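From the methods appendix. Each design record in this collection lists the tokenized structure first, followed by the designed amino acid sequence. Records were kept in a plain field format so they could be parsed without special tools. The example shown here is representative of the layout used throughout.

RECORD:
FOLD TOKENS (82 positions):
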């Protein structure tokens, strides 16, 4: 079964434009680290909360967070090969 590609949608934070997302079978989110005040090497804990109106209807992951370090300028050189 073929799923059509998703159209990117702009993100918002406190009423301001920030990042973008797209969702078909997989949710893709692009958030600029600098706009969030994050620097290379900092640890990040991330959870997605889905809100309908004023009510939270889903949280991913349900418990805990997805954690990672903000990559530095060497990240691609270390982790990717062509």
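DESIGN:
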């Amino acid at each position: 079964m073929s799923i059509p590609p998703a159209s990117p949608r702009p993100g918002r934070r406190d009423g301001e434009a920030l990042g973008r997302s797209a969702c078909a079978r997989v949710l893709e989110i692009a958030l600029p680290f600098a706009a969030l005040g994050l620097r290379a090497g900092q640890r990040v804990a991330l959870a997605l909360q889905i809100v309908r109106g004023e009510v939270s209807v889903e949280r991913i992951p349900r418990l805990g967070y997805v954690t990672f370090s903000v990559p530095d300028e060497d990240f691609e050189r270390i982790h990717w090969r062509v």
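APPENDIX NOTE: Residues 39-82 form one domain.
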